[in-house]
TrEMBL record:
Belongs to the KHG/KDPG aldolase family. InterPro entries: Aldlse_KDPG_KHG (IPR000887), Aldolase_TIM (IPR013785). Coiled coil: none annotated. It comes from the Bacteria. This is 2-dehydro-3-deoxyphosphogluconate aldolase/(4S)-4-hydroxy-2-oxoglutarate aldolase. Pfam families: Aldolase (PF01081). Homotrimer. PANTHER family: 2-DEHYDRO-3-DEOXY-6-PHOSPHOGALACTONATE ALDOLASE-RELATED (PTHR30246:SF1), 2-KETO-3-DEOXY-6-PHOSPHOGLUCONATE ALDOLASE (PTHR30246). GO terms for molecular function: lyase activity.
Amino acid sequence: MNTVELLRADRVLTVVRAPEISDARDLCAALVAGGIHVVELTYTTPDLPRHLERAASTAAETGAVVGAGTVQTADQATQAINAGAQFLVTPGQGPEAAAVAEAARAAGIPVVLGAFTPSEVMTALALGSAAVKIFPAHHLGPKYFKDLNGPFPGVPLIPSGGVNATNAHDFLAAGALAVSAGTDVVSPADVAAANWSSITAKAKTFSAAL
C-alpha cells in the first residue's frame, strides 16, 4: 500500500514539530499504537536526517511510514531521501519547489506540495504532487475544501494547521483525503519528555474522532 492509499485508509497523518526528539523509533511506535501510521518529521527539528534515519531503519518494526516535512530546498530533499524518507512535504511553493518535486520523482517517492490558493493547487498538480497540502487550513475552514472540490474533483487534499479532534471530521466530510494532526497529538513537551503513553492516548482519541 503506497502512502496516498494508506492516507485514504487511515484518513490521518501526524506532523511532528518539536525542538528535540528523544527517540524517533519510540515516537513512531507510540503513534502506530494509537492508530496513526503516517508520520511526518520536519526540518523545524534540529538534526532531522539523524531522526529520519532512526525512524526509517526501524519502520519494519514499528509499522510506520515516515517522511520529511517542511522541505524547502533540493538539498534538504536529497538529505531526507538519503536518510530514508518515504515521502516529502513542503509548506508551500518556494523557488525550489520544482527541484524538490523532481528529487522525489527521481527517488520514486511521493511529494506533497503545499498550497493555499486554487492557482497554487494547479501548480502543485502540474509539478506531480501526489496530494496537495492546504495550509493553513484553520483560516479557510472545511467549506473551502468543499469549494475546491468543484474545480478539482477527486484531487487528494490534506488540510494542515489548526486541525484537531473537534474539527477533523468536518474537513473529511467536506472532501479532504486525510487530515494532518499536529500538536493536538504530538505536543513538543510530550516528545521531548518521551511521554509515549500520552502520545498514544492522544492518537487514539484523534483517530476515534474521525
